[in-house]
């Protein structure tokens, strides 16, 4: 019950966090007042996410089991370096897309894959720019660099022209690599399933056509048999005339 009631408020908090987190990164020359406001919003959302976690923990019948099954949420709250991963709360928006645009299991998988990929590229690009900008030896100084790096990392291409040099940046890289491999597997499995279904449908159509042809041949054979039977039962025309003459 708590999770259902808190779902939309948490999505809203994630959106607020996304905006507050992105503004100073995209526009590093914002005014001090704007920077302070963004920090306040980030801290506020962190506190509210903590309240949500504690609330779910207290309402859980098996608290140890809850902690074991929600280690990711706990790590995001406890480790400051993982704060960009709070943006993954936006993945719950995919449930809305799931209910409105996707038909069938394959459609839901495609929706999640596309949505998760887009969100992870955005989050990864912002996070890596935030952690790498201004660091000695870093090749990532702008959001465009970060987005490009995130795309290259998630697709496991790894050109090597841009790479993280900080521990936090490397943690972000590991997450993106793992998610990229996972999503690639999902897309590959979905494509294979689609191709299998297409081949099966073609086989069914060919089988139906073959069965129809067999039925037509059977009907023709029956018709020929009937004609042959009728022709064999009828007396020849010459024999009938000779019999009449003898009488």
From TrEMBL:
Residue ranges of every copy of the Potassium channel domain listed in the record: 120-196
Keyword Ion transport assigned: yes
Main localization, broad class: membrane
Entry membrane topology: Multi-pass membrane protein
Bilayer-spanning residue ranges: 6-27, 34-54, 109-128, 172-195
Any GO CC annotation of this UniProt entry: voltage-gated potassium channel complex
Region listing for Disordered, in residue ranges: 227-247
Molecular function terms, GO-annotated: voltage-gated potassium channel activity
SUPFAM superfamilies: Voltage-gated potassium channels
Subcellular location: Membrane
InterPro entries for the chain: K_chnl_dom, VG_K_chnl, Volt_channel_dom_sf
Entry protein name: Voltage-gated potassium channel
